[in-house]
Amino acid sequence: MFIMLTKLRKANMNRIVKGIMITGVFLFSFSLFSAQAINRVEVLKIEGTISPVAAHRLEEALKSAIKEKAHCLIIQLDTPGGLDKSMRQMVKTIMNSEIPIVVYVSPKGARAASAGVFITLASHIAVMAPGTNIGAAHPVAMGAGMDEKMEQKVVNDACAYIKSIAQKRGRNEKWAEKAVRESVSITDEEALKLGIIDFVAEDITELLEKLDGRKVQTSRGILTLRTKEAELHFVEVSFREKLLQTLSDPNLAYILLMVGIWGIILEFFHPGAILPGMVGGICLLLALFALQVLPFNLAGLFLILLSIVLFILEAKVPSYGALTIGGIAALTLGSLMLIDPSALYISISLRYIIPMVAITAFLFAFIVSFAIKAHIKRPVTGLEGMIGEVGVAKSDLDPEGKVQVHGEIWNATVESSGQTVKKGENVEVVRVERMTLVVKKKEV
How many structural domains are present in the chain? Predict the structure, then answer.
């Protein structure tokens, strides 16, 4: 009996052990399947100017990607450049990332210019779509308050920075330096041959396939990417971020500032028009909203405001062009200086400055011309409008009497003492004193 119970217990134990093993294998397989099924890749689109908004979005997207245990973060990049400070902040974020960051210059026709070159070179894996280009990383905000020696220092600093990035990522240092010193720009195929990027991908699907299995050195060590059938999660952009990113274009901010000023001035000269003032106020507020994310120069802004004051003074106290010339000079200098010289990879294009200054000068010259005409034109209504009119003496003026002007009888007095005017003679009104006309004899 005892032997039978012992055998039964052993059989039960074997069943239990087998059940545990099967359950373990099942759970292990399920965990592997789940891990494979939830492969996650975050995608962040950065388009337009590299600004504090873009730098903030990258930091937040990276935090989210790490929290969600994403295999990597893909930055879909299309930029003409941007702020030096924001670019350096983004480069530091990428270089110290715990997970791989892939910069994908896309879609077709996109570019990674100026500050975008630094960001692309800093990525763990750099990729371009066909029909894109990269380069032209020479600092553009040169000459505004910088002498030749200072410009050389700035260029040398940018060269050293981009070479250190290229060296860290094992990319072509010589080309990186040429991109800064000579503003060279190359296509996707040339970039692949020169060792600037890792490969070319037609679209994001092909990108994920080519990324799969690649080993990447991060701040946590070497990681192997598993992206072939990964689930893509695109980072959402809030309305405020979209607005700020759009307005962070210095050219747009400048246009809004000028349109805002025009609207306010037109409302000033034509009170009650409403529309110019309303449009001007909205544009001015949007411009000031944009300037908060741009490194603007107070001296440049004050010069623009000074130019408007000079234009208004010309309209109120005509100087026959002197104040207008001063206003144009102040507006031009202010426009050139509006963006701080420290913003090495961003500036207001002359393609916008020249037309805006020309339109403003024309607008105020138009207003001033009317003001001057009104200033020198003889009044044609009221008592002042009587000056210069010719009438007929209805009685002898010695020196006072009656005259008829425009069919009306007026009290009149002769201008020169000792002079008399006979009844029926023509007279010319010299001035009006209260309700009495001062006249002189009209010579035939």
Answer: 3
Q: pLDDT (tens digit, 9 = 90+) per residue, 380-404?
A: 555 566 777 888 888 888 888 898 8
Q: Which two tokens stand for residue 107?
A: 């879609």
pLDDT of 52 > 90? The answer is no
Q: Contact 71/99 with Cβ under 8 angstroms?
A: yes
Please answer whether residues 141 and 346 qualify as being in contact, where contact means their C-beta atoms are separated by less than 8 angstroms.
yes
Same domain, 290 and 434: no
Residue type, 96: N
**102 and 194 housed in the same domain:** yes
> Which residue segment(s) compose the domain that 366 sits in?
249-376
**Residues with active-site annotation:** 114, 153
Q: Smallest Cα–Cα separation from 321: which of 371, 387, 355? A: 371
- Amino acid occupying residue 361: A
Q: In what order do the strands lie in the sheet with 111-113?
A: 111-113, 133-135, 185-187
Strands (E), 136-274: 185-187, 199-200, 215-218, 221-224, 231-234
- What is the Cα–Cα distance from 55 to 369, expressed in whole angstroms? 49
Instruction: For residue range 302-357, list pLDDT tens digits in order.
Output: 888 888 888 777 766 766 678 878 888 888 888 888 877 656 556 788 888 888 88
> Are residues 362 and 266 part of one domain?
yes
Task: Please check whether residues 341 and 394 belong to one and the same domain.
Answer: no
What is the pLDDT of the chain when averaged over all its residues?
A: 82
pTM of this prediction?
A: 0.64
- Residue 8 parent element (H or E): helix 2-37
Q: What is the DSSP-derived secondary structure letter of residue 153?
A: H
What's the CA angle centered on 31, arms 30 and 37, to 5 degrees?
85
- Across the beta sheet with 101-105, the strand order is 199-200, 125-128, 101-105, 72-78, 40-47, 231-234
- Under the banding of pLDDT at 50, 70 and 90, the label for residue 24 is low
Tell me: do 330 and 434 sit in the same domain.
no
